[in-house]
Design brief:
GO terms for molecular function: ATP binding; ATP hydrolysis activity. By secondary structure, the chain is α/β, with parallel strands linked by helices. 35% of the residues lie in helices and 30% in strands. The protein folds into two domains: 244 residues, P-loop containing nucleotide triphosphate hydrolases (Rossmann fold), CATH 3.40.50; 73 residues, Alpha-Beta Plaits. Helix 6 links the parallel strand 7 and strand 8. Helix 3 crosses helix 4 and helix 3 runs parallel beside helix 5. The structure holds adenosine-5'-triphosphate (ATP). The site of adenosine-5'-triphosphate has 13 residues, from strand 2 and helix 1.
Length: 335
């Protein structure tokens, strides 16, 4: 759905000076997925996101959205195309002098759709974002979360195929953030809209994204499914992001307990998280086990769990258990 090929962006900062904000960016976002780009301030996330609808025109490379090469389009065609690419912003960017209803109707007025159709569409959008009873309020009478709901409704007005989210929850408290993220998940699921979001919060990535790319100094340094990047972060900056939200624990978490057997960390994912895989595997040997630590969380809708377990048995039995758990798709590391 979105294909960024060899994207470069050089800002002219003076007559003879320039700054390379994006270099060699290659990114593919599939139809219907929620893709997150994470990076520290200045990494180039906003520049990247704004390249997708050419709010920021790349100085090199190709931008393809829904099969169209955007940089090859004329002004008029680009305007039409942009109607199919909704965008929401950190600071909402609402019109302050008109009501919630008129903010949402704004893109429909520009698209010159009939009054009846506009009324019906706005009613539908108000209901979708849960703001029907606030439709005659002005933005200053709304909370941050409500303002972002208006921003989302406005972005969806023209029925876009893609929604770009520029730090959409960064100005919101954690509870309000969760409400907005839930709404984005719902919109993605019900309407099949492809979502590309940028954030500096790994919690946002974990909560809604299918895949993630990590940016640093204008480049993508790592990408993959959220689960893989969480469980096996390769780059230093990725490890820092993961550690900010991760409940991964190491052997030190066990404290002063004197381990007698082999301590292992086991990762479960998906339905296995709730199955007695460990018990069944150990039961086939003469070994036993003790659970020293455990947790179950969710990545988007996928449950994943981890246990730190002490396996007590002969070396051969322990080896067999580790091997068999691996064969059943669990990740086991000896600590
Ligand atoms: N118009 C501009 N002219 C010159 N440099 C710019 C311009 N816009 C952005 N930059 C620089 O490009 C780099 C990337 O900026 P960008 O806003 O894309 O990063 P970001 O990851 O979104 O960071 P933040 O979260 O702080 O917005 C920064 O170093 C920034 O100073």
């Amino acid at each position: 759905m979105i294909d960024l090929i060899d994207i470069e962006k050089v800002y002219q900062t003076g007559k003879k000076s320039s700054f390379i904000a994006l270099r060699g960016i290659n990114l593919k976002v599939d139809k219907g997925e929620i893709f997150g780009v994470i990076g520290r301030s200045g990494a180039g996330k906003s520049t990247l996101l704004r390249s997708v609808n050419l709010l920021e025109r790349p100085t090199g490379g190709t931008v393809i959205v829904g099969g169209d090469k955007l940089m090859a389009l004329g002004e008029k065609q680009l305007q039409e195309k942009r109607k199919r690419i909704g965008m929401i912003f950190q600071h909402f960017n609402l019109l302050t002098t008109v009501t919630v209803r008129d903010n949402i109707a704004f893109p429909l007025r520009i698209a010159k759709i009939s009054t009846n159709q506009m009324k019906a569409r706005v009613d539908e959008l108000l209901e979708l974002v849960g703001l029907t009873e606030y439709q005659h309020h002005y933005p200053k009478q709304l909370s941050g979360g409500q303002k972002q709901r208006v921003g989302i409704a406005r972005a969806l007005a023209n029925d876009p195929e893609v929604l770009l989210c520029d730090e959409a929850t960064s100005a919101l408290d954690p509870q309000t953030t969760e409400g907005i993220l839930t709404l984005l998940r719902e919109i993605n699921r019900k309407m099949g809209i492809t979502i590309l979001l940028i954030t500096h919060e790994m919690g946002v990535i974990r909560s809604v994204c299918d895949r993630v790319a990590v940016m640093d100094h204008g480049q993508i340094v790592e990408s993959g499914t959220v689960l893989d990047v969480f469980l096996h972060p390769k780059n230093k900056i990725t490890r820092e992001f993961v550690s900010e939200v991760s409940d991964t624990f190491g052997s030190e978490a066990v404290g002063a307990y004197q381990v007698k057997g082999q301590m292992v960390r086991i990762h479960f994912r998906g339905d296995q998280t709730y199955e007695p895989v460990l018990y069944e595997t150990v039961r086939r040997t003469n070994a036993t086990f003790a659970i020293l630590q455990g947790t179950v969380s969710k990545m988007k809708d996928v449950p994943y769990g981890q246990l730190i377990v002490e396996l007590r048995g002969s070396d051969a039995e322990v080896n067999r258990i580790v091997e068999e758990l691996g064969e059943q798709g669990l990740e086991v590391s000896r600590l």
